Amino acid sequence: MSSVSLPFYQKHHRHYDRGYRDTMLSSTMQEYRQEEKRSTASHSHRVRSKYSDEMLETSSESPQMKRAKQNYYSEGHEHISGITGRRDERIKHSKTNLFAGESYFAEKDAIEEHGVEKTSMHKSRKVATRESAERISLNKHIYETQEFHKRLREDSLLRLPEFIIKPRSHTVWEKQNVKLHCTVSGWPEPRVTWYKNNVTINVYTHPGKYVINSKFGVHSLEINNCDFDDTAQYRASAMNVKGELSAFASIVVKRFKGDLGDFSFHPRGFAPPSYDFFPGDPHMKFEVHIVEKFDVSFGQEGDTMSLGCTVVVHPNLKRFQPEIQWWRDGVQLQASQWLQMHWSGETATLTFTHLNKEDEGLYIMRVLTKSGYEQHCAYVFVRDTDAEVAGAPGAPLDVYCLDANKDYVIVSWKQPAVDGGSSILGYFVDRCEVGTSHWVQCNDTPVKFARFPVTGLVEGRSYIFRVRAVNHVGISRPSRISEPVAALDPSDRARLKGIPLAPWTGQIIVTEEEPAEGVVPGQPTELTVTEATKNYVVLSWKPPGQRGHEGIMYYIEKCVAGTENWQRVNPEIPVKSPRFALFDLAEGKSYRFRVRSANSAGIGEPSEATEFTEVTDKLDIPKPPHHVVPSRNTDTSMVVTWEESKDAKELVGYYIEASISGSGKWEPCNNKPVKGNRFICHGLQTGQLYKFQVRAVNAAGLSQFSPESEALEVKAALGGGVPHAPPAPPYAITVLESVHDSMVLGWKQPKFQGGSDITGYFVDYLEVVDGIPGKWKEAHIKAVSDRAYRIHDLKENMVYQFQVRAANVAGVGLPSLPSDKFKCEEWTIAVPGPPHDIMYTEVRQNSLVLLWKAPVYSGRSEVTGYYADIREVDADDEMWRSVNEKETSKRYIKVQGLKEGVTYVFRVRAVNRAGVGKPSDLTEPVTAETLPGTKEMSVNVDDDGVISLNFECGDMPEGSNFIWSKNYEELIDSPRLTMETKGGKTKAIFNDPGKDDLGIYSCVVTGTDGVSSSYAIDEAELLRLLELSHEHKFPVVPLKSELAVELLEKGKVRFWLEAERLSPNGQCKFVFNDKEIKNDEKYKIKVDQKTGLVEMTMEKLEDIDEGTYTVQLQDGKASNQSSLVLIGDVFKNLKKEAEFQRGEWLRKQGPHLVEYLGWEVNNDCSVLLKCKVANIKKETSIIWYKDDREIMFDEKHDFKDGVCTLLVQQFSKKDAGVYEIVLKDDRGRDSSVLRLLEKAFDDVISEVCRAAAQTATDLKVQSTEHGIRIYSFISYYLDDLKIIWYHNDTKLASTERMKSGVTGEQLWLQINEPTEKDKGKYTLELFDGKTGHKKSVELSGSVFDEAFAEFQRLKQAAIAERNRARVIGGLPDVVTIQEGKSLNLTCNVWGEPPPTVSWLKNDRELLGDAHLILKFESGKFASFTITDVRTTDSGKYCILVKNKYGTETGDFTVSVFIPEDEEPQAEQEVKKK
To answer: If you ran DSSP here, which 8-state letter would residue 107 be given?
Structure first.
């Protein structure tokens, strides 16, 4: 029977199985026949009773008997002798059962006297039942007696809880009562707690719902008036000091389908029946209106908040109410201890009993009816509550159990957005057993990783967890507690989770097998490292296939990389589950792991080892996001977008912070990480400029903040704060193509667009059956941008109607009127269908441009062309005329010859080989007129020859854009054009004009009444533009410099000019007095095309060279020339200068000055006198003079770059005077003089002061024991540099409390005993005689507070240092003294208050006595006296002085020696001893 699979609700109900009942009856009758036989043999019966008692006495020590006892009381299968009808099985059970003594002899008698059975078969069922009850009562009495004696024999009465009778599962109907029973034994008496889905049942939460009783070891749970919510798994947990044991049972609640009519709204929140069950007209429609909607809400952790809407449903059926659903971030919410939902029939409310950051998100209230649903949504923001310690971080959030096992639970959480002003050091994880209120901290040191495995759990018990963040200031408040989780094996948890809830549709399959003992388990398989951090490593594997049927355990072994030494991680306590978390691994090292299985038969072979795993965090902190862009939304919110972090792994989301520009204070916009790259930040101040920054979050931590966005003013995006309206309905819905299962629709855009561009369209359809329209259905979810859409999955030959809605940034508009009725059938006509989306643009007084899209249905051949038709709006259909005589293959045409002020309509027909197709719908009437302010597109070639098309919109609305097209197809990222837009002007620049650029270019301004223009570029126009561009590029050869003349060394003359550029074909001619000069011995001409340099040199000027010089340049079509006239005085001066230069060249043959003596001030404020010399050799002497007095003679000069220098350090008034340098050798002499007197000296001093002022460092704040000091350093200070200090732009005067001065290179301002009045901005001005150089610092806020606090600390420290106890002197380092002498040491001590004095010897305190006299007099003098020094007095001594300000010690060593004449005597005495 044990192998039969039954549903759990029949497993313990034998009356469900008639066959089973017959077997029991047969066996029971056999038992009573045997009992009757035994009654005739009294002597034999006494023997058997005695034998049975002996078996009972030995049962406590026999494992076999224990197993028999367990089988007897097994809940799922009760093996009682006589239950089975098979003879062999009865004999087997009689030998192995705990109570087999009686059964054994009964079976023996039954075998010997088999014939008696036939006579006993006629015994009545009533008598058999009575005798069976007596038999069971007797066995029960025997068992209780045995258990009583067993307990008496135990050394200790303490026993684990044990379920004698376990609760059984039930299936009941709704509104019935159900009762669960269990019997528990154990000592001390166990305490039983009932759980529902691992949550403790509280009878006071729902008064009258639950009744719990416990009497005489029998425990019961009664559930009254059952409903769907009671379908769950229930657990009875028995616990005493020896441990805990649980038993499980399931309850399934069913409902009669016919009872729906009597259903009333359940006060506990169950939804009423769906509108699909409503009686009456199946075509009845319900209109839902949501009024008094909840808006964006802001709350704080711990607050209570309610969201509510008033819902009006028509018709209002009091008996039936709509279904109200609440959603958060796309997840439907259910009532819980944190959320309460209420529906009064008119108002739907969602109440948060205790707000947490987990409650932040987008909330949707959805009202479901038969006709569909209506919904409303708004965001709820939850900020952190005030920290218990100022500066502590916010609480973590979203604590949940990532993985649960028998031995550990991995807890995961999300980091808070608020860190309290200092970085978070880590997190503490706390656990609490369900049913208690005792929280235990799981980790001693904070963990930075947002996941942590919690160990030390008791198997089978349920726990809840919470997390706290910690920084340098303190610990945050705890997070919201997690959902309860049981420490169970994953397979057990999977089995429990696999039990389906109401309505019950499954079965629990129970199989039993005989235990297989003596099988050593095989190797575990699929060993993997599921998670590795620097704190722990988690292993997972599958149990071995060869393991028998008894429980197996595991030993884990590790091996460090580079070795073959395997160490067992858990040698004492084996692991019960196939997962394990390892701690205490060396960070940075690599390990391999393997697992061994074990049972009572032994330890199996190890599994395959894993690959080497490095103990480090595999998950890196994400990189910061970038490109944060805010955009306007409403007058209190902004939309922030960003580019996501690159290569981010396991990204949790993003935190966004906002700051008012200039405030420096950042506030979080969200306290719960958001995913994606877009977020709406609410609660901003209208009119303020805000900046935003974003950072990413994963389990490893928070990234750095992104770069700050640009500041943007908060105001409404539409109309400067005036809300725009949704667009009007589209119209003119038509079918563009029809096949057997789909149709293509076309329509016209709304006449009123609501003040903004149309962003998309939504199409609905319904079926028309026998003229009755059905229910509207959505054809798609995502908006379509085109005005044509194909609807799929239609029914062939079904009639449909359609409606279209348009949407813009303000919302979705009203639907259009239902279209005509269209039948879904295959089109077979040969000609093409109608073109669609007919538009006109560039409307002028005598022309316009007509645009259209190709027909969706092309007929039996491809479309070859189009005809455009025109007529006046009031004319008859006979007045249609074709715009083009020949078909055009283009999908645009320019209509000319219009009459100004006349209104026209247009249509287009498509052509293929079969003929002309059906005309399109008519366009909207358009009047031929040029609107005021209309501007045409123009072409321009700038000075650089760049060709561009330019268009301007005089009054361009905000938010409008320029759309460029070529041949009326939009240009998107064209490589041939570069678009530039600035304000109301736009430009399309041709990057490389060519034949590929031929076409019609047009530009349309969105958000206007058709502002547009175009320009056609054909081959002739392109050629004209290219020529014009070339002329602009190369009209003349541009010159960087005109023809000029200069003198070179030796008096040579150089004529030159420089062109901006010359091509390799560029040519040059020199003309003198209308005669071309050739390159010969006198004239040396050179042309460099790369640099554009043209030059001609002459050795010397003669009188015949007076005249006009001209250079003529020719480069392709470009040409230029430049002339220079050298006549009269100009020529004479040039000739004279040439001769002088020749003389100078001769001078420079000896040592000479290239640059005369000058000065400059270095960055270190020194003055450098320098001149440049040339033609120097070793024999040349260089002498420096000041005021005709030689100050330096340089015989060995080895300077670089030919510069002679004299460095004057710390230049001051004493350095004023006349400086001279003299160069001389056998080739000649040269000198230079520099006068540094009066104004020249003042200029040097001023420059030195300026350089010194520029070296000033930024002002810094330093606290001292006297106050606050503001200081700066300069590299050099001199008295001419004036120093002025300002406080809040007020010049400061030196006082006793406010002093300034200079110490070395430090400029300081000392504020003694600062007060609140000293806060503000301090400025140091360094005036160099011409300008002032300022450095400022803000001494306020946290800067002042920190400085003031440091001043107080230093002040107290100074007081403490002055008054602390100290040893002033008087003690030697080492004292050597003869034995028997008297030692007296005195030292001076000091302290206020007077210190206490104690003496130590070898770190042990000394107490004064007759041998050792310790004194402390007048609070200043401490004396140390040893009256009779002994060798035992040698050692290290210490005086310890102490008062409330500190402690100090003075050490000295005492060495006692014995005189030489006494040493032999002492040795003899030692030997005698």
So the answer is: H
